[in-house]
């Protein structure tokens, strides 16, 4: 694989959808290769290739995600990306419906840094009915134990149906399921014989020409992000730079900030050009790229240290956008990393306000980022950055109305956590202060529906009602499971006896008994929004405007 290629990035649900398409005989595009004798920078694929079956070297330009996914599933081998080995395990439903519904499954890997969801709020019957309508699912131990589900990799490893039929309870030829299951297993195995058309570029082309083709091909279908295309252009100008970028990416990950490579490339462009768009990436000289990268890495180290030590943001899970890091990095660089106490305090406040308000989540995020970079490059202060936030939202404070209709994906949810942690909020059983770093399933932080979701849906409220940010609190896994689907008026008694009334105040929860009954849920939300807005504003250091 040439250096210009992005790494393997597909998550398990995407692989599941590819398998489903191939199972149904849908087309899966072509593969683009380059046959060359030129010595070009290479990188390993996520799945190893035992030997080269061609007389010359053929580099994979388009189709890596598909081929890697299929290889991992068919061969039953894990993928290796950035030093981590991860299996891709799918299950096949022998009892799938003849007509497949289009079902979007939650990608469990979508945000590995985020706090875990409320386990007890998942209605198992609903999930089970949903899975039964699917042909392929990402493997779970619970589903794998059911008779109708078989591991896809195991089917590919064997041409015999006996063990799968036996496990499914099929005992003889006269079983009406025998023919149906056998046909479906055969249809699944036929995926191995799917033929991809291969387009091979001539060996007379130069690396720069092939890079241009790569960028154009992937731009037309918007298969790659702008950062992936910029990487191709940068590595064409700066050979062997991918290894340098990935080494720094690993360094940041060890510090708790496992960021997409595109963020580091955007930081490079910002430091090299004073703006964040990748449009100029292909026109930058090698010297400008190398100087920009050196300054960008120094700036990003400052940003990580500042966010962790001064702001209390320990990782990207607490950021509404990683673009915020680029601004902090650029500000530190512009000040020569010599900030006065006042400048440090104001930069901290800007970071908290921009994060709480979701500054880079409204409108064109790159345009907003460029506004901040422009202010800094002209010598603007942190106060000037804060003024941009005020201009964007009309005010700096948070009102109870701002919290209406928000859920755990809201930037304010992350600020709630920061606020509660600063107040000293603790788990209601272990008395451990809330943190994203707790180890072990019993203590790992989860967000808990104060009024359990199952309880609310049983009483006529919608899932959206239950997921309201004013119904969410932070506790450990053991406490969450202990609460199950009990009403607050029932489960709180024990906790309050042991922990005292401060247990609720530290997370902005009203304590009036009449608000703890499910019939008062709407009134509870209104009362808590008032308390949340007050606590968050005090944390942010803003007053009513």
TrEMBL record:
Extract the Pfam families matched here: GmrSD_N (PF03235)
Q: Where is this region: Disordered?
A: 105-125
Q: Which InterPro entries match?
A: GmrSD_N
User: Where does the GmrSD restriction endonucleases N-terminal domain lie?
Assistant: 1-234
Give the top-rank taxon of the lineage listed in the UniProt record for this protein: Bacteria
Q: What is this protein called?
A: DUF262 domain-containing protein
Q: Which organism is it from?
A: Sphingobium amiense
